[in-house]
Design the sequence.
């Protein structure tokens, strides 16, 4: 059996299948959380003109005057005016082009108006060229690279894109993912249940975890019963169509766990089966003849979600231009014995104590108990040789969903 870090290495050294990502045009209002798939260049200087940063008067710093007669008013949204007499001023509003011949703005707070004349309140007011003027091209120049491919589109990116008049962008989206639940006991949520049946939740949980990192992903859901022929036929069809196949359940030692043997028959090469990790030991991983990548996750809801977060998300991240911050380092707030040589993934609830982020390990560490998971913000990884969580020690933390949008 291989270790969790070996499993991670095998997965990370596997190629991302062709066409797993697609580049599509999306309206900007639909692009939140997606990854930019094009470099964005400036079309003109920003600001496009010397822009007044205050409401006040625009003057020439060459003037030695302390009192200025106003020639007119420069307004935001109107063409640039010209100062005729170097000793006069033009009233100027925030956002207006600073008039030709002016190189300094004095805010209204610094002047008094009397009979159409503007007089400096402080006679020693220091007139400095370009004060309160946002100079043309000082933010960026035409043709400058503003945003690189791979950026997550958040509100600041939308602000910049909108400011240059862009209404749609090329973005990267995941394509061609199949999530396959297996098990005779599983019933579609919304249907009636018999006592011996349970609702299938894994496909929805796995899809949600993927979508929180990769919004708009095209993920199709399938279900297969524990019937050898059905498993073989369905998987065969799914493997023809999909590049990434995530199977939940049917990979353990049970009499009706047909997934590993069926994948073998379909020429999907096993790269590993079973990992020294808890939860999630029966994890199966392999590649198909058409470069399909196949994950077989143990059916326990906690195991399947932890494996998705720990192994599938970092694999998908490989296809991005810029790595996501998919894991973070945090301290444990308490010591907890776990006592085994496996790598452990321990759900934690987060709190900030004296400015440091702490994770409180959850004690319900049975992969069957998944109601407790909702009280965790993610899990920490305890290396295989440690056997316990140690208070104040720093661990890798894997938040549920992407923190990229939140930090
Ligand atoms: P398996 O890995 O198929 O042996 O399943 C292990 C446990 O997880 C069993 O108790 C299953 O009923 C449960 N299980 C498997 N798939 C799902 C699912 N999609 N939703 C909820 N529980 C599941
Ligand atoms: Mg099963």
Sequence:
């Amino acid at each position: 059996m291989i270790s969790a870090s070996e499993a991670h290495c095998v997965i990370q050294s596997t190629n991302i299948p062709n066409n797993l990502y697609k580049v599509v045009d999306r309206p900007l209002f639909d692009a939140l959380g997606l990854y930019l798939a094009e470099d964005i260049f400036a079309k003109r200087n920003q600001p496009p003109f010397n822009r007044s940063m205050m409401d006040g008067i625009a003057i020439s710093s060459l003037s030695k005057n302390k009192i200025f007669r106003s020639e007119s008013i420069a307004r935001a949204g109107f063409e640039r005016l010209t100062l005729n007499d170097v000793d006069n001023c033009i009233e100027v509003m925030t956002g207006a082009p600073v008039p030709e011949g002016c190189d300094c703005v004095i805010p209204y707070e610094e002047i008094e108006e009397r009979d159409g004349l503007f007089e400096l309140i402080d006679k020693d007011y220091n007139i400095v060229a370009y004060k309160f003027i946002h100079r043309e091209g000082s933010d960026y120049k035409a043709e400058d690279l503003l945003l690189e491919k791979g950026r997550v589109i958040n509100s600041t990116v939308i602000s910049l894109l909108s400011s240059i008049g862009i209404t749609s962008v090329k973005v990267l989206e995941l394509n061609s993912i199949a999530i396959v639940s297996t098990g005779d006991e599983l019933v579609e949520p919304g249907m009636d249940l018999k006592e011996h049946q349970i609702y299938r939740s894994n496909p929805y949980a796995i899809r949600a975890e993927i979508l929180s990192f990769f919004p708009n992903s095209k993920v199709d859901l399938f279900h297969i019963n524990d019937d050898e022929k059905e498993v073989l036929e369905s998987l065969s069809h799914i493997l023809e169509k999909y590049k990434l196949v995530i199977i939940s359940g049917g990979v353990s030692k049970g009499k009706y766990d047909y997934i590993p043997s069926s994948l073998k028959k379909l020429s999907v090469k096993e790269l590993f089966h079973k990992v020294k990790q808890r939860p999630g030991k029966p994890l199966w991983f392999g590649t198909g003849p058409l470069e399909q990548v196949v994950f077989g996750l143990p059916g326990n809801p906690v195991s399947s979600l932890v494996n998705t977060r720990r192994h599938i998300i970092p694999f998908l991240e490989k296809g991005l231009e810029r790595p996501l911050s998919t894991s973070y380092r945090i301290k444990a707030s308490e010591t907890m014995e776990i006592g085994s040589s496996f790598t452990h993934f321990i759900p934690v609830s987060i709190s900030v104590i004296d400015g440091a982020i702490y994770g409180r390990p959850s004690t319900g560490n049975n992969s069957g108990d998944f109601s407790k998971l909702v009280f965790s913000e993610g899990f920490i990884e305890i290396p295989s040789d440690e056997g316990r969580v140690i208070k104040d020690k720093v661990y890798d933390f894997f938040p549920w969903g992407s923190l990229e949008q939140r930090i």
Observations:
- The mean pLDDT is 94.
- The chain is about 15% helix and 30% strand.
